[in-house]
Amino acid sequence: MQTGRICFQRYCIRKRIFYKYLKENSIVRCMISSNVNGTGSINWSEIYNRQKKKLQENFKDPVQINPNAIFANNETSLSEIDIYGFDYDYTLACYKPELHYLIFKLGQEALIQKYGYPSELINIEYCPDFAVRGCHYDVRKGLLLKLDSFHNIQLGTVYRGTKALSDEAVKTLYGGIHVSLEDMNTFYGTGPMYQLVDLFAPPEMTLLCNLTDFFMENGIPYDPEYVFHDVRSAVQGVHTSGQLHSQILADLETYLDKDSGTSDLLESLVSQGKQLFLITNSGFPFVDAGMKFLIGNHWRDLFEVIITKARKPKFFNESKRPFRIYDPQTNSESYDRVLKLSKGKIYQQGNYYMLQDMTGWYGFNVLYFGDHVYSDLADPSLKHGWRTGAIIPELEREIIRSNCLEYQQAVKWLNILQNLIENAQMDTTQDTTEIRQSWLDERKEIRNYTKSLFNAQFGSIFRTYHNPTYFSRRLARFADLYMSNVRNLLNYPIEHTFYPRRMELPHEPHV
Fold first, then answer.
1. What average pLDDT does this structure show over 278-302?
2. pLDDT per residue as tens digits for the range 364-377
3. C-alpha torsion sign, points 245, 246, 249, 254
């Protein structure tokens, strides 16, 4: 008898705590009293239906974000910036989608001609919508996958070749969904988890996945690590041999976007008294031809310092290799020691420390733009105190997708549904447990739907289902600003200050 009384008292205490918790929650606070049935329990189905009806009736006008805006991770005032620096590829030079088709084709040919791969590979066509930037390739397991900022694998985004792995298979292979720090990349992106960071990587990864499909479909044994390094070497060889540059130079109209706004931006900055410099890993003949096409023969007059073959990221973190003067007429480098940097001359190699000593450029006075978060942005930001701007061409397309009514309705309902799931978990009755499970199933469907709006395989490059991606984490750490194109600067006055959005922490009140 005594035991029964104690159990009943505990039940009453738990029940009081449960209702107190519910009444303090913003989602169901106002609906509790009107949705208690005769037994004193919550009618969760009624709450669900009312919330869904309310969303459908009231959510008519989606919020519109300007795809050509600039976004801030860190407060940045252009009034403090006197010197603007730029990378070349995918920063000043905006490439058309045809370039990825070319890289894919040249990679195919190199694998067949130089590495002895089957000639049938040449019949595979490039699919531009398969891979996205920011994903990782597990070199040892031969898998392309997407990680969040906590090194967790997003289930539903793991592919062997172009075939998705089941959630159960992923958990078995990795003993869960977490990738340990030891298995991640080093700071500069090398290691067992190779990351697709630059904009040349999607065709390379697509070729690798197509090659994996070919081996599996034809029953050909293969070692994923060997195949990965062969594809890497083949595609990198296309770059280092000059073959890719030659093809681009032969048809600039096909591969370079002349209407990218580069010329207007550079002319505007110079007219307002700003100093410009260029640091690129590409060679001068390639850059010169592209800049003449984009801007005109006078392009060199716009820059105080021009540095090619810079060997980034080594340029920013090593004090070796002094500058050498390059002579475009003879295609040769000087033997004299460079003691100062002069406008009108072309420099190769060099390093950050000599650049700072010879120019006096340092700290918050400098804003440098690039597309590679490691090679272009990490060291200037972390080591040298420059302000940095990331160029993310995919951003424009992603914003357009997220501006649509269907996406924003889905995300709003996803948040409401998740709050309902969280609240209902304290109600342990059988009916509520079944309802919660149906909500969890619905949440999974909505997550997959919102993912597919960006990319059917991997979703947005900026987020997993609920966390930022690994790519987003690096972007937020190394880039003060990010945008789809450098020309977006033209939309703002030269004294403009960019303010980051105040982020609500989990323990803070929702205001």
1. 97
2. 899 999 999 999 99
3. negative
Alpha helices per DSSP H over 313-469: 314-317, 352-359, 379-382, 394-402, 405-424, 430-452
Q: How far apart are CA 486 and CA 70, in angstroms?
A: 9
Given a contact cutoff of 8 angstroms between Cβ atoms, the answer to whether 478 and 381 are in contact is yes
Sign of CA dihedral 446, 450, 453, 454: negative
CB count within 10 Å of CB 5 equals 9
DSSP class per residue in 374-395: IIIIIHHHHTT--EEEEE-THH
pLDDT, tens digit, 9 for 90 and up, residues 124-176: 999 999 999 999 999 999 999 999 999 999 999 999 999 999 999 999 999 99
Closest to 489 in 3D by CA, of 363, 367, 306, 362: 367
What is the sign, positive or negative, of the torsion defined by CA atoms of 384, 385, 391, 392?
positive
Structure tokens at 391: 């160029």
Residues labelled catalytic: 87, 89
Considering the chain, what percentage of its residues have pLDDT values greater than 90? 79
Per-residue pLDDT at 3 exceeds 70: no
CA distances to 24, 48, 264, 432 from 30, in Å: 10, 13, 55, 19
d(CA 425, CA 286): 61
First to last CA, the chain: 50
Tally of helices (H runs) and strands (E runs) in the chain? 17, 17
In whole angstroms, what is the distance from residue 115 CA to residue 233 CA?
A: 10
pLDDT band for position 58 (50/70/90)? Answer: confident
| Rounded distance between C-alpha atoms, residue 358 and residue 352, angstroms | 10
Q: Are 159 and 208 in contact (CB under 8 A)?
A: no
pLDDT at 33: 47
Q: Say if strands 305-308 and 136-138 run parallel, antiparallel, or are unpaired.
A: unpaired
The mean of the pLDDT values for the chain is: 90
Selection from 190, 174, 182 nearest residue 229 by Cα? 190
Q: Looking at 36-98, which runs of residues are DSSP E strands?
A: 70-72, 76-77, 83-86
At 390, the amino acid letter reads A
Our measurement of the distance from residue 495's CA atom to the centroid of its chain's CA atoms, rounded to an integer in Å, reads 28
**What pLDDT band is residue 1 in, cutting at 50, 70 and 90?**
very low
Rounded Cα distance, 169 and 176, in Å = 10
d(CA 303, CA 314): 22
What is the rounded CA–CA span in Å between residue 206 and residue 121?
Answer: 13
Quickly list H helices, 295-351: 314-317
